[in-house]
Amino acid sequence: MKEDESSAGSELDPIDQLRNAQQKLMMSHQRTVDLHTAWRAQMFRISLLIIFVTMHQFQSPISTCIADTKESNEAAGESGEETIISGLKAVMLIFTESFCELLGVIIASLLSYFLALSKDSPLELDAWPYVASSAFVPPLLGFYFHSKKLGCLGTGMDESSPTRQFPVVVIYHTVVTFAFWFMKNGIQQCEDHVNLVNESIKDFQRMDKKIKQKQQLREKAAKKRHKP
Q: Model's pTM, two decimal places?
């Protein structure tokens, strides 16, 4: 019986074999789509965690600048100087000192929005939330490497001064970029294989049609020759 089944399987027409391969490729394509959907959902959940991490990093320069401002104001009050930092000037100092971390929060929010939009149907990397987040990465790295030490007044900064934490959102942005590039290539390969099999099936169908037409013409010609 096994030999009969194997011989029957080997006697399948090329078109039937291609159709079997087509079904398997379509199933593989669907499994890949489901896997990528789960990946995107997981990356979206991680992006929410990244937002909380960037918010925590955002608080560090703010608290350091507030402490420096208070210390400067106390020193100015004791010495009788009128260089007390308050109001708008203090806000501007805090904003300038924490601008690097603020960009990190913005990038994390844009990435999370991009992943939220692509949870069900994948977006391309030219979608505006991803493009905007990518545009903020170079300035973020520039601010980080330009001012690694924390301190908005620029006084008393030495080797023991607190340093900025590396923006973790840059790492996550890289992960998202490579993940979407990998998923796009994987889906594209599956679709290319399915399209190749579809084209092969069409080619075989056209060949079968031509062969049948030739056979019909030969049969007609043979009948005409055998007529009395």
A: 0.73
